[in-house]
Amino acid sequence: MRSPNLFTGPCPICGQSDFENMDVLWPKLVTAWQLDSDEEAYINRQQGFHCRSCMNNLRSMSLAAAILYSQDYIGTLEAFSQQKSTLSLLEINRAGQLTATLSQLGAHKLIEFPEFDMMKLDVESESYDIVIHSDTLEHIADPNVALSECHRVTANNGICIFTVPIVVDRLSQQCSISNPSYHGQRDIEASDQLVHTEFGADVWKYALQAGFRSCEVFCLEYPAALSLICRK
Predict the structure, then answer these.
(1) What is the pTM of this model?
(2) 115 exposed, middle or buried (CB, 10 Å; 0-12, 13-18, 19+)?
């Protein structure tokens, strides 16, 4: 399952190539998620492989690289954020460690739970060129409604880019209420860490059902670093 071409850098956010890897999954979560050894390995890499300079993990690097790819920009996200001052970007919950970099955009706005409900955003329609969220959708009770709200607030010809944990050899499924699963931190079962949907190979359909005209899977590294680019 491991990619024959593992991502080795440079970091798409800061441009450095000093990386570190650490395991972040714990046995209870692996069991609840019913991960086999290959799935455990690539999700650990997705969440635990990180740049020692900017501290962004592989998941955030994939999101950053997808933003750059969608804008045909060659360079780092840091340079992009400093140069594209007129681009409007809505960040729904903090996208890992990317917020500090994205905030350099002149029209960057961060909104967070619980002040903002992703299924009913208090945001003007068609108001942002780019809408992003990272490993948030799995915690939303109805992902179709949440993505419909993303579609609503995205400007015409704009894009929504997001990541979710994807188990690539399964189809998406709703989590069992009787056997709840929590992402986030070991032994912390906070309500905002409860997982409602385990996403699989059909994750693209949620974006199309929400009204986006296309959904592209952007791959920084397969299968550990995948992002979805949805165009309105």
Answers:
(1) 0.91
(2) exposed
At residue 178, the pLDDT reads: 46
- Token pair of 86, please? 């007129």
- At residue 9, the 3 state secondary structure works out as coil
8 Å CB contact between 147 and 197: no
Pairing relation of β-strands 214-221 and 197-198? unpaired
Which residue reads 């933003």 in tokens?
67
In three-state secondary structure terms, 202 is: coil
DSSP secondary structure of 81-140: HHH-TT-EEEEES--TT-HHHHTTSTEEEEE-TTTSBTTB--S-TT-EEEEEEES-GGGS
Structure confidence by residue, pLDDT tens digits, 71-87 = 999 999 999 999 987 89
Which structure tokens are listed for 138?
Answer: 């799995």
pLDDT by residue (tens digit) across 109-151? 999 999 999 999 999 999 999 999 999 999 999 999 999 999 9
Structure tokens at 46: 């997705």
> Which residues does 211 contact at the CB level (< 8 Å), separation at least 6?
148, 151, 232
Q: How far apart are CA 219 and CA 210, in angstroms?
A: 22
Q: What structural domains and CATH numbers belong to the chain?
A: 19-231 (3.40.50)
Taking residues 216-225, what's their average pLDDT? Answer: 97
